Amino acid sequence: xxxxxxxxxxxxxxxxxxxxxxxxxxxxxxxxxxxxxxxxxxxxxxxxxxxxxxxxxxxxxxxxxxxxxxxxxxxxxxx
Length: 79
Hints:
Pfam families: Zn_ribbon_Com (PF10122). InterPro entries: Translation_reg_Com. Strands 1-2 form a two-stranded antiparallel ribbon. A two-stranded antiparallel sheet has the order 3-4. The termini are far apart. It is about 5% helix and about 20% strand. It has about 80 residues and is mostly beta strands.
């Protein structure tokens, strides 16, 4: 549980589980009257690093002929 406190007087405003705040919250401190506005942290916009380590998974799906492994020949494809 995280304790959320007033930015001005440090009075306890509420307690919440980690990542429980989904939208913007505006709460007035009962002690000093300050409006506290809280927004959730946005996830990083960077792409996560690949787990396979080398980026070779894409290359392994193709044979020397250029067809994907497991691909059906054109004559047996469903129409």
